[in-house]
Amino acid sequence: MTIIHKKRLSGIATALILTLGTLGPIQAYADIQKVTEVEGISEYRLDNGLKVLLFPDPTKETVTVNVTYHVGSKHENYGETGMAHLLEHLVFKGSPKHKDIPAELSSHGARPNGTTWTDRTNYFETFAATEENIDWALSMESDRMVNSFIAKKDLDSEMTVVRNEFERGENSPFRITLQRMLGSAFEWHNYGKTTIGARSDLENVSIERLQDFYRKYYQPDNATLIVAGKFEPKEMLTKIENTFGAIPKPNRTIEPLYTIEPAQDGERQVTVRRVGDVQLLGTIYHVPPGAHEDFAAIDVLGEVLSATPNGRLHKSLVENKLATSVFGMNFQWQDPGVAIFLAELDKRADIDKAQAAMLQTLESVNTTPITDKEVEIAKQTLLKNLTLAFNSSERIALELSEWLGMGDWRLLFLNRDRLEQVTAADVQRAAEYYFTQNNRTLGRFIPTDKPARVEIPLVADVDALVKDYKGREQVAQGEAFDPSHGNIDERTETLTLESGTEVSLLAKKTRGEAVVVRLSGQFGDLRSLTGKNAVGEAVGDMLMRGSGKYSREQIKEELDKLQASVSVGANNGNLFVSLETTKANLQPVLAIITDVLRNPSFPEKEFDLYKDEVKVAIEQNLQDPQSLAFNALNRHQAPYGKDDPRYTGSFEEQLAELDKLTLKQVKRYHADFFNSKQMQVAVIGDFDKDATLASLKSLTDGWKSKQSYQRIPSPYVKLDNKPVVFNTPDKENATFVASMSVPVGDMSADAPAMVLSNYILGGGFLSSRLATRLRQQDGLSYGAGSFFSMNSEDERAALAAYAICAPQNLAKVEMGFKEEIARLLKDGFTAEEVEAAKSGLLQGRKVSRSQDKELVRTLAGNLKLDRTMNFDKAFEDKLAALTAEDLNKAFRKYVKVDDFALIRAGDQSKVE
Length: 912
Description:
Blueprint: E1 28-29, E2 32-38, E3 41-46, E4 51-56, E5 62-69, H1 83-90, H2 101-107, E6 111-116, E7 121-128, H3 131-147, H4 152-170, H5 173-185, H6 199-204, H7 207-217, E8 223-229, H8 233-243, E9 268-269, E10 278-287, H9 295-306, H10 312-318, E11 325-331, E12 337-346, H11 351-362, H12 372-389, H13 393-406, H14 411-421, H15 424-434, E13 440-442, H16 462-466, H17 485-491, E14 492-496, E15 502-507, E16 514-522, H18 526-529, H19 533-542, H20 552-561, E17 565-571, E18 574-582, H21 586-598, H22 604-621, H23 625-636, H24 651-660, H25 663-673, E19 679-685, H26 689-700, E20 724-727, E21 734-742, H27 751-762, H28 769-777, E22 781-790, E23 797-805, H29 810-827, H30 831-849, H31 852-865, H32 869-881, H33 884-894, E24 901-906
Parallel strand pairs: 4-8, 9-13, 15-19, 20-24
Antiparallel strand pairs: 1-2, 2-3, 3-4, 5-7, 5-8, 6-7, 10-12, 10-13, 11-12, 14-15, 16-18, 16-19, 17-18, 21-23, 21-24, 22-23
């Protein structure tokens, strides 16, 4: 897949609580030479040129294998745009030793993907840490490094899939506007060309050119292997030597790129006119490479300007009703990149007025200097994100790909050090030098008598920057935790507070002393919640916009100081809170959440901003095929009256409800419904039990409401099969959805068989029946699959399938879907695919249990359902015992082709 980030690519945040580490003695394992070590990450070099990074993490029950190739869209020549990305797709088509890679990924329960960006391409998979899985992954990645088929037949089918992905991007106002801006900003450098490529290149590229591109760049001396997770380094090095070490070093030479973008000599502007409901306004400024010393100051500057709600753009545009939202991002590349700022406007807003305010804010720092407080707040946010990311070896393993693309993985640590040292003077200097009129792209070219060129500095030698870098001590390593059902139950303590709130505590030593919390609450009944869907949603969004002790800005600043990531939300009848922080900060974070939940201030200004933001967001969906189709799916699965809490409104109905919404209703809803009696809290990680229980007691004690709680049932209803069609003119992509209901809940006898049936039908990774047919075989869809969503308290499930495609292929997709369902009903599932699916699904569930953020949701859900992990174990035991006959019997019992309601959204003038 191609990627366009809404944060800087290296970004991802994370502030490391570390000190300088020491570099151990250089060692060699067979033909592997140790090069360096920084903060727990060791670099090795094979004789064939392959770089290897090992990041052992005993706290994980998973392993992530990532291969990063130093090739991206900037390496493409004329007529080859999109080739790096197209090749990424073909490398999943198999190799001599691994002929069906998608099926293998599914059978091993892996979480895989491949991504292509400007400077690099990477492939990764995360899986349960077993010897079999590790051996398989290393064998598969080493074999497809040089032996992938890259066959003409695969190009013929996959080219249309990639073209479908291209067309999906054409539907996005954000993507297409940013693409046009980049194309205008770069005259010569390939950074101005989108990674997805030109349609004509995609449709005409020859297999011979693709094969030459593959043989040139997919070689060990142009790649870095990263392995992170639970393994023994010595054993891993032996395995790597036996697989990747057997690949010979190539004889070819990769010539270095030498195109440098000249200094821009005047502001530029580009305008896109397409069907849509939202206006976008953006600016681009050229900035140095990601390795340049100025980039840390530019990162801080971007946060100062674009953060919500304390950024300068938010205050000048959003709070003054000139825009509904703003955001910024830096593309941190190997060569000089860009800083980007974008604003979203109501379609009736005055874009000229917004543009004047935006440019005044961005280019007037000489008259309104950057303050020390602004820099401090911005650094807290950026460093917090770094700290949290470094608590996950899996996240860091993937993040290193971006820094490798910039020149060296150690730049991650160097950039962190630079970020910590940034001052207001550094940020002021960067703003005054780079954010100027003649270095700006809005799109329009305006001649000037006195052009002022901004020369963008280069980095001459990255190796010299990192040569003697030692790094810091590693963060706390945590314990090796067994994610078995029995061990989770044994380690989990469950209790009930005086308020009635139920609590599950799973204490364990974690990397970086990380801790995660999930809070869920239910309130109201069918009568009291009737007609309040829009109000309930609004309350959830407003909670973090101000409390008794804190303003919206102060909430963000305090949570950043405490290195906490917090999400608070609600809908009509339910409250949700998720947070991630560290042991030392858990109690002060819970104190803030207590004030947020119990004493929201509901500021009128923020309520007005909320309504504007939601209005624009809904209007943006009115012409989007995928949004329309999935809204119709939700409506089909909820056949209730308009005021019923279970009802899903159309986008037009949502706009009407939003227009009628008042702040008085929001305040009344919170006072009438929110309480702690029907609440569940789960905590996992490194925490002080007594202090945590005291904080939860403060959060819940004495919190009562006027309305009592009674669960609203969702019994099985046989749904109609009436087709639904949406016409979305001038949209290059379309969406197909099929929907039906099944009288099966997760306690039903047929539940395991239906879950596994769906996994084969539309789950897994590109190897399901639907993905194989619609993407792999027919090449009609970039994304196709199905899901089976069961109710845990009622005997009811939603079975749905989906595919995105070109409008002219909607009929073919519908036919392919119907034929695959009919084939399953006639011929049934095979024993081989059932065994492979069981292996993949069960390993995937184990991987989920080893992820604290996912397990904490399970524990909170178990409290509500009065379950333990033994329920999951029994369910998985039933899954493991299933046969093809069991699946065929259950699937034929519940599924009929004609029972599906078919939903189609796209430009109907193009439908064939």
